[in-house]
Automatic annotation (TrEMBL):
<dbReference type="GO" id="GO:0016491">
    <property type="term" value="F:oxidoreductase activity"/>
</dbReference>
<dbReference type="Pfam" id="PF03060">
    <property type="entry name" value="NMO"/>
</dbReference>
<protein>
    <submittedName>
        <fullName>NAD(P)H-dependent flavin oxidoreductase</fullName>
        <ecNumber>1.13.12.-</ecNumber>
    </submittedName>
</protein>
<keyword id="KW-0560">Oxidoreductase</keyword>
<keyword id="KW-0285">Flavoprotein</keyword>
<keyword id="KW-0288">FMN</keyword>
<dbReference type="InterPro" id="IPR004136">
    <property type="entry name" value="NMO"/>
</dbReference>
<dbReference type="InterPro" id="IPR013785">
    <property type="entry name" value="Aldolase_TIM"/>
</dbReference>
Length: 367
């Protein structure tokens, strides 16, 4: 399982693993892939700096990347207080009433604010902090970052990846200077478009041409699916949901009730909705997501207002630990996440199944 991206990044396998957990990112990198740390959970630059210090020291010298959430168009952004004043009272009332109906208690006084990382200014600080360390890749979950950020990364010798849900978006990213396109299929968790991976990956590969590497993403959680993505023209895969079911992820300790929720879920138990961030994102279906489908539910607000509206609610839900209510981005691959395993075992199984699949297809081609 070697492609040109392996040489470009000094990795053994073209398996890129997005995760909010530094423990998962480090374990994936040590196992031969490229762990990519999601920075959106970091409200404080010093906290991110300390975490990247830890990654520097715990990856055995192997490469890693970081992922930020940064729209290309810089939004009008005042203080968080200014933004909160823009949230309609009916939305605030709905959220609080729903939490009470679901039996979700308030947070303790030291409950953390989990929304600042979604703000454009904070995402820029994430880039500044990251470039003081040794990432080999900066990925942006909202497509192409501003051109000056791309140039800043390139000046530091760091490549830039951007997610795309359509070929026209991929072409725009390349025109802005993005190095790698992540073809994010409909099946994926978190922010995702409307085209499934089987169609999207070859569309984007053909659109950007052979000089621009493409990573297939969305619904990938087995070696067979990696083989399929490479067959569609990708040079590697961008994975996310499968790492939520690892032992290392449980060290994050921010999602009580998550394990029983995902281990019983099927591939049909997700929903694509704007209630998480204001942009379409795939979440695990729960009593919380269903509440937003009721007749009296307001329409989700645009980003970042929806983040501000629901950030404390999500923290309260996660702290409560009720698997029937848990709010979590996850892809349709959740139906195959039936047990908690160490990262090293997951990587080994991905590689072994990939090799077995390619061998089987070699036999078919030989016929």
């Amino acid at each position: 399982m070697r492609t040109p991206l392996c040489e470009a990044f000094g990795i053994e396998y073209p398996i890129f693993a997005f995760t909010p957990s530094e423990h998962v990112a480090a374990a994936v990198s040590r196992a031969g892939g490229l762990g990519v740390l999601g920075c959106v959970r970091f409200n404080d630059a010093d906290d991110l700096d300390r975490t990247l210090d830890w990654l520097d020291e715990n990856t055995d010298g192997k490469p890693y990347g970081v992922d930020v959430v940064m729209p290309m168009k810089i939004p009008t952004e005042g203080t968080s207080i200014d933004l909160k004043a823009m949230i309609p009272e009916e939305h605030l009332t709905f959220v609080e009433r729903t939490l009470q109906q679901l039996g979700i208690p308030p947070l303790p006084e030291d409950g953390r604010d989990g929304v600042l990382g979604w703000l454009h200014s904070v995402a820029r600080s994430h880039v500044d902090v990251a470039l003081k360390h040794r990432p080999v890749l900066i990925a942006n979950a909202l497509g192409s970052p501003p051109v000056d950020v791309i140039e800043q990364a390139h000046a530091a010798g760091v490549k830039v990846a951007a997610l795309a849900g359509a070929a026209k978006h991929a072409l725009s990213h390349v025109a802005n200077g993005v190095d790698i396109i992540v073809a994010q299929g409909y099946e994926a968790g978190g922010h995702t478009g409307e085209v499934a991976s089987m169609v999207l990956t070859p569309d984007i590969v053909d659109a950007v041409g052979p000089e621009v590497p493409v990573l297939g993403a969305g619904g990938i959680g087995s070696g067979r699916q990696i083989a399929a993505s490479l067959a569609l023209g990708s040079q590697g895969v961008w994975t996310g949901s499968i790492w939520l079911g690892t032992e290392e992820y449980q060290q994050l300790n921010s999602h009580a009730g998550w394990v029983p929720a995902f281990t019983k879920a099927t591939s049909s138990d997700t929903v694509r909705t704007r209630i998480y961030t204001g942009k379409p994102a795939r979440l695990l279906k729960s009593k919380w997501t269903e509440a937003w489908n009721e007749e009296d539910a307001p329409s989700p607000l645009p980003m970042p207002l929806q983040n501000l509206l629901v950030a404390e609610a999500h923290n309260r839900i996660n702290a409560a630990g009720d698997p029937e209510v848990v709010s979590m981005p996850v892809g349709q691959i959740v139906g195959r996440m039936n047990e908690v395993r160490p990262v090293s075992e997951v990587v080994a199984d991905l590689v072994a199944e990939f090799e077995a699949t390619v061998k089987r297809l070699d036999g078919v081609a030989g016929l």
